[in-house]
Amino acid sequence: MQAALRQTWAAVKFWPAASQWKTAALFAAPTALIIAVAGAIGGWLSFSPVNDAQTALLALVILFFVPAFCEEIIFRGILLSWFATFSQRWGNWLSIFLFVLWHPFQALTFGPPWSAIFLQPSFLFATFILGIVLTHIRIVSQSLWPVIVIHWLLVVVWKLLFGGPFY
Fold this sequence. Notes:
Blueprint: H1 2-13, H2 18-42, H3 53-84, H4 88-110, H5 115-118, H6 121-141, H7 145-161
Helix pairs in contact: 1-3, 2-6, 2-7, 3-4, 3-7, 4-6, 6-7
């Protein structure tokens, strides 16, 4: 576990080159489209922008830390690094699987307003796709920053522009 924590810290300290950010964006763009289609089909994504600037600014800050930073430190940082010590391939998939399971766990544990959405198959599919892409980006970039930023941007867009529930 100490090695996983060291690797996670190294991934936090490492800022990727511009070319790695570009590669991450090239993977994130079609992923966002797939997620948008899943959200539209599932009914949890519809254009409904937040009009309150104070709410939007507060959301920008809070959503950076929870879920983006915290979830990525756990799933693409600590767990991915730890599981990879046993098997890189199985570690990747186990980290993705736990990331997906984390969302229904939240719904069943913490409840509304997001519980109904987090239990929908279309949302879990979107989470699965996101987990695969973020894991790939994390491995290729060797940094947590692209996955944190992508996760953050997707959640911000969902919550501030497309009707995602607030806490």
